[in-house]
Amino acid sequence: MNQTHELNVSLEHHLIEALNALPTILPDDLAVELSAFISPSSSTVIPYYILLKISQWSRSPAGLKALQSSSLDPQSYSMVSLLAGTRTSPEKKFPAYVAKDPETERRQAANDKKAVSTVVNGVLSVAGTGFATWWASERTGLRLEWRALFATFVALVVALAEIILYMIWDSRRSTKKTERAPRILSRNGKLVEDSDKANIVDPTAASSSTDHHHSVLRQRLVQSASIPHDSLHE
After folding, report:
1. Residue 86 and residue 93: Cα distance in Å, rounded?
2. Phi-psi region for residue 81, left (φ > 0), alpha (ψ -120 to 50) or beta?
């Protein structure tokens, strides 16, 4: 009941027309509550619980008699008719809907299909192995009960193997979902994956390293040019 007291319904034009004919025939307490919201100076919403009370009253013997005496249709005051074309709590600001990533949904759908196909293949493998063992054991001369037991045992072994393989596959799939490469911020302000960290080249460091090599080369050239030719002959 507390939740219905917190809900409001927008007062649309057709709803106001339907409710304006009620204050004179409603019970006094309900008429007072309704008049506070359908007056010209009232708000543009009406509490949901008031409409619920009106709907319950319209289905009571006294309500049916009062509506019929005023030439009003009782069906017009059912909850379906009263709420038709209205909005729930229009004064509230609901958070915007954030759509899921289409790529994530596509991968999830593909993983679900793989899981279903894996289970179906496992069931078919177990059934096929059991039937093949039963059919092949016919030529062994074994009695019927031993053939059935042997086929059941082989099917159980295959089923156990299929379960183990499925658990391994599912654990690897879950690991791939949870593991995400951490992101780092490069110098140009772009986010890159940690796996590409080794490929990131710092332009500032590269430039400074190049400048250093160039300066060393220039110094060597200057020194070699300043050495007298005589000293070279010596």
Report:
1. 16
2. alpha
Q: How far apart are CA 234 and CA 220, in angstroms?
A: 20
Residue 22 corresponds to which tokens in the numbers above?
Answer: 């009620």
Q: Which of 18, 68, 72, 10 is nearest to 42 (CA)?
A: 10
> Beta strand pairing status for 45-47 and 183-185?
unpaired
Which stretches within the chain are classed as H helix?
A: 2-6, 13-20, 28-38, 48-58, 61-69, 79-83, 102-136, 144-178, 203-226, 229-233
Handedness of CA 25, 26, 29, 33 (dihedral sign): negative
Q: Give the CA angle between residues 119, 164, 174 to the nearest 5°.
A: 75
pTM of whole model > 0.70?
Answer: no
pLDDT tens sequence across 36-86: 888 876 678 888 999 999 999 999 999 999 999 989 998 999 999 999 989
CA–CA separation, 186 vs 193, rounded Å?
10
Nearest to 156 by CA among 138, 129, 119, 121: 129
Smallest Cα–Cα separation from 188: which of 207, 175, 201? 201
Burial of 155 by CB count in 10 Å (0-12 exposed, 13-18 middle, 19+ buried)? buried
Half-sphere exposure in the Cβ direction for 90 (13 Å, CA): 11
- C-beta pairs of 89-92 under 8 Å, 24+ apart in sequence: 89/7, 89/8, 89/9, 89/45, 90/8, 90/10, 90/44, 90/45, 91/8, 91/45
Q: Residues near 232 by Cβ (< 8 Å), separated by ≥ 6?
A: none
Q: What tokens appear for 7 in the block?
A: 């809900």
How far is 161 from 145, CA to CA, in rounded Å?
24
